[in-house]
Amino acid sequence: MATIARLAGVSPPTVSRVLNGRSDVAADTRRRVEQLLREHGYRRPGAILPSPRIEVVFYGLETNLAIEMMRGVQAVVNEHDLGLGFTEVPADPSARQRSWCDRLLTQRPTGVIIVHSQFTAEQHAQLAAGAIPLVAADPNGQPTQPVPSVSAANWQGAVAATRHLLELGHRQIGVIGGPVESLYARERMEACRAALEIAGVPLRPRLARTGEFSFESGLAHGSELLSQPDPPTALLCANDLQALGVCKAARQLGLRIPQDLSVVGFDGIDAGNWCDPALTTVRQPFRDIGAAAANLLLALIAGPVPALTRVELPTTLVVRDSTAPPRS
Amino acid sequence: MATIARLAGVSPPTVSRVLNGRSDVAADTRRRVEQLLREHGYRRPGAILPSPRIEVVFYGLETNLAIEMMRGVQAVVNEHDLGLGFTEVPADPSARQRSWCDRLLTQRPTGVIIVHSQFTAEQHAQLAAGAIPLVAADPNGQPTQPVPSVSAANWQGAVAATRHLLELGHRQIGVIGGPVESLYARERMEACRAALEIAGVPLRPRLARTGEFSFESGLAHGSELLSQPDPPTALLCANDLQALGVCKAARQLGLRIPQDLSVVGFDGIDAGNWCDPALTTVRQPFRDIGAAAANLLLALIAGPVPALTRVELPTTLVVRDSTAPPRS
DNA sequence: CTGAAAGCGCTTACAG
DNA sequence: CTGAAAGCGCTTACAG
């Protein structure tokens, strides 16, 4: 402290006042001292600094995907001997005792990865004020918050799924999308639409639906689409859960998969493998997304990174048993 | 510090030596000073004590169950404004860069919940030496480590499942167990055996198998059991994953569920609801287990708790569409 | 193994 | 808004 005082041309008591956040210091002096303090990495003697830790904040996510992502983050975190925190933001806001943001500002993790980032400008400002670095993983797009992010190639994945059905010979292809307010759900839907149009079999409005990312939504929209007079021979779904719902709807209507109906999901959850027939899907590299987000966060902790850094990882079409050529 | 010195009848330098773990202090003096230090809750001045945090350590677990358990822990943790850490111990020991135990001793969480506790006496001693309180959740039983624990009523659950099949009229009931080294897998198997015997339809050796907690194991053992000349009309499985494998095996052999074969799982994973037919199962209250473990841990942090405290939560039979009366 | 004395780093109360 | 002086809590080097 004496050194800092000498360099700043002030007395030790003044440095002490800055350290303790007293108000009776000239703004100019304060700035100068703070600058030197930072440069010299000053630490209170005897202060045990809390061990560094990365916090992952989930806004409700398929359990399977959450764990995969945690595994990716953990791999990186272990290499650097950091701790790993877990927060799930309850879907029901009334259940939130304190905002996760307040909580994090008390806990002071070294950095935060936010998954399915539905956070507000206010929360973003709060974290920025607390100087806690932040990275978004698989954001469904709130482009108002300029945060470095990692996501998957939704567009390419949806195109690959569509082409797969076209190559099998399907021409009556239906699409069930995700919620309209979700940017990435739209990205998938529009990719399907574009791929179909380019192939010369434009998506018919009566075969397109807007659903939710849930089993129930797949069941409802599937029943409705498949009960039509001239039903689709193949369905592209917003995610695997919805696709499993469609499978159930198909069976309830006496349709066999894949003989009477081909179904494609999106995500690559474990359950897609356990169900019968195993689900053809577009796998998102959740583990890699977690690892990439952690690495990006570490880069951000080490020094500034362009705010709009965006890492996009490839998706993979996984062909299993729920798709086949159409019957006729 | 001066107060402590006075009360202990020593000089401040001696207290300082104890605080800094110097070796040149008489064992007796050290004990006396440490005692007073603890009683008075002495803290280094200026030391920012790290915010309290609970760490949950998983030994490979169904993703679904892990998240449910985390949710239960989080509910308690939020109430008390604690942090929540996550560690998954890789199944492959060579992947472990440093033992999770060493890592935890650096991180120093306020307490640890270990899930599926396959830890050694050495690790137990390490944590005890670090004075980190420990609770086991859903332990598969390593009774050598005397740790307070929370688990579910495996025996009662398996009995309920068996009685359900008996009440439906099944008399040709098969059982696929879990690994022999798993205490709770044996508990389930023995409960089935006992319930069958009491009902006067003892389990025939040719209908009993020892498997793994996996889809593949269910597929393999299911195929084999159902290909027998006089096959079972119902199968009790070690867990849901295995049961889903059995369902696939049945369909491959042209058997319909539940008309030709009834199947019961154990756990209550989400996928059991998404598959068709929805799986009858014994639900374990994973969220409650997490919450109970967290509460037990908080009690342990607040003061001593009998080492053999064991909380056992009830399981519930969930009847869905994979069970029905036998055909004949 | 322990204490009296000196010292270190920080903070506080006072004066201007 | 700032510094010289006094003080506080802890540690260190020395002596026995």
UniProtKB/TrEMBL annotation, chains A, B:
GO terms for molecular function: DNA-binding transcription factor activity; transcription cis-regulatory region binding. InterPro entries: HTH_LacI, LacI/GalR-like_sensor, Lambda_DNA-bd_dom_sf, Peripla_BP_I. Signal peptide: none annotated. Keywords: DNA-binding, Transcription, Transcription regulation. SUPFAM superfamilies: lambda repressor-like DNA-binding domains, Periplasmic binding protein-like I. Residues 1-51 form the HTH lacI-type domain. It holds the Pfam family Peripla_BP_3. The keyword Metal-binding does not apply. Gene3D superfamilies: 3.40.50.2300, lambda repressor-like DNA-binding domains (1.10.260.40). It comes from the Bacteria. This is Transcriptional regulator.
